[in-house]
Amino acid sequence: MEHKKICFLLNYASHYRLPIYKLINDNLDCDFYFGDKLSTPIKKIDYKELSSYKREFKRIGLIGNFYWFKRSVFSVFNKYDTFVLTDEYQ
C-alpha cells in the first residue's frame, strides 16, 4: 500500500473536536495547521495534545465574510499527497 502524507488545514482548533483530532494524529501520517480565531468565542485546544501540530495561521479579513490565513499557501505546496480543508460556518 502506498504511503500518503495528509495535510489538515483547519479553520480553528475547537476544544470539542480534540478526541477526533487525537485519533487522526495517532493513526495517520499527517500534519495539523489551524487558524487562530473564529467570529464566535469557542475554547481552543492545547496544541501540545497533538504531536502532528505544525503551526497556527493568523486570520486576515479581506472582503465581507471572506478571509485568508496568512502564509497558509506555503503549507499547501509542501510535501503532502492529500489535503483536508475546513471553513468557518456563518
Query: Gap between N and C termini, in Å?
Result: 40 Å
Which structural category do the helix and sheet elements fall into? alpha/beta
Helix fraction by DSSP (H/I, runs of at least 4): 10-25%
Portion in strands? 25-35%
> Based on the structure, what is the oligomeric state of the protein chains?
single chain
What is Rg? 13 Å
| Main sheet record | 4 strands, parallel
What overall geometry do the principal axes of the alpha carbons give?
Answer: globular
Run of helices and strands: EHEEEEHE
Number of domains: 1
The number of helices is: 2
- Counted beta strands: 6
- Give average pLDDT, whole number: 81
Query: Largest beta sheet: what is the strand line-up?
Result: 3-2-1-6
How would you sum up this structure, described in words?
This protein is α/β, with parallel strands linked by helices and 90 residues long. The protein has one domain. Helix content is 17%, strand content 32%. The chain is built from 2 helices and 6 strands. The chain has a 4-stranded parallel sheet with strand order 3-2-1-6. It has a two-stranded antiparallel ribbon with strand order 4-5. The longest helix has 10 residues. The N and C termini lie far apart (40 Å). The mean pLDDT is 81.
